[in-house]
Structure formats: C-alpha cells, structure tokens
Amino acid sequence: MTEVIIFKLKQEEGYFDASGFDDSELSLVPEDTVCLSLENASITDAGISSLPRLKELRCIDLDSTKITDESMDVITSFTSLEEIWIEDVGITSKGFKKLALLPNLKYVSFWGTEISDDAYDYVMEKLPNLKSEG
Questions:
Q1: What percent of the chain has pLDDT over 90?
Q2: For the CA atoms of the chain, what is the radius of gyration?
Q3: Helix (H) or strand (E) holding 85
Q4: Looking at domain 6-133, which of 3.30.230.70, 3.80.10.10, 3.30.70.790, 3.40.50.720 is its CATH number?
Q5: pLDDT tens across 36-50, in order?
C-alpha cells in the first residue's frame, strides 16, 4: 500500500473527526483543520458547500458520503490538499478530472467509484507523481 498521511495526522493537532456530522454542522469545522474525516457522515453537496475556508487542509476523507461531482468545486479550492479519500461516493469521471487542479495532491483512493480510464489518465498526466488506489 502507498504510504498515506491520514494515519499519521490522526495522532496530531489539526485532526478533526466530523464523521458524526450532518450537513447543518459542517460550518463548525475549525478553519485550522489539517486533516478532516467525514467518512460515513450523512453529508451531501449542500453540506460541503458550507465548509469554512480550510487553508491548511492536507487530507480529507469523504468515503461513503453522499457527495457528487458538485462538491468537487469546493474541494478543489483547498489547494494545500495532499490526500483525498473518495471511496463509495457519487463522483464520476467529470468530477474526478477536477483533481488535476490540486497542485499538491499526492494520493487519492477512489474504490467503488465509476471513474473512466480516460479520466484517470487525464489526472495522472497532469499530476505525474500522484499515487492512487481504486
């Protein structure tokens, strides 16, 4: 398995577990969050759009949430993002391609998604050092 940072950051200051949150609570995420876990949270695109500006965000886990391509515009605004987990979500090839806008992205896990080879190749061409699983 590729070395990922989420497991290291869980032990450090700046890790925020919002896996029990719903859309109405996402505005409460601290702005200095470095690693945000939303795994299995009852959140949608509407909730993602209410996240504060997370300038220091390095890692986000969105596994098994109800997000779609619509959330990718907000997610790609977190330009410090190095790692993203988007397993079992409603992101398609169109949304996946937006990952190419994240210059610091080093790792993506996208198991259980419908990403085309063309979309994958597009992102890998733009981010040749990106490690991925999915």
A1: 87
A2: 13
A3: strand 83-85
A4: 3.80.10.10
A5: 999 999 999 999 999
